[in-house]
Amino acid sequence: xxxxxxxxxxxxxxxxxxxxxxxxxxxxxxxxxxxxxxxxxxxxxxxxxxxxxxxxxxxxxxxxxxxxxxxxxxxxxxxxxxxxxxxxxxxxxxxxxxxxxxxxxxxxxxxxxxxxxxxxxxxxxxxxxxxxxxxxxxxxxxxxxxxxxxxxxxxxxxxxxxxxxxxxxxxxxxxxxxxxxx
Length: 182
What we know:
With 182 residues, this protein is mainly alpha-helical. It has one domain (40-173). The protein has helices at residues 20-34, 38-66, 84-100, 105-124, 126-131, 143-160, 162-173; strands spanning 75-76, 79-80. Strands 1-2 form a two-stranded antiparallel ribbon. The longest helix is centred in the first third of the chain and has 29 residues, at 38-66. The protein is elongated.
């Protein structure tokens, strides 16, 4: 389902020397731009930024804790600054951007990335926020990863199943899905 009839899907046989990766990237770019609505694009960007951010923050904190990275915790005096604080700031920015609103597709994607990253930073430290004590590296704090994996799995199932959901809606209602609807 191509939203812009003037655009064709990239020809996979064009340019014999083009790598498969390059062709795949072109196809993904085309599908992202023309087959998804702005709501779907911003949701997908939020999902991808959540996945990347949760992986990055876990890797970074593990590297700091084990001493494999030449970095250290961020402190203000003797107070450790937990990464849920930048997460709250990012959600505040995303909320402000969302309230203001915009018709530009780039703003929707920026909003999605800001929201996804902020959610990842907060989700990673949920046990600390709920227990009011630092259980990040204990078995008691492990459930934050379970929550993150649940979010990743659920959103991944949704985004990979978008065509299925449209087909089910058409089957149930008997009406074809209109372009631009989720």
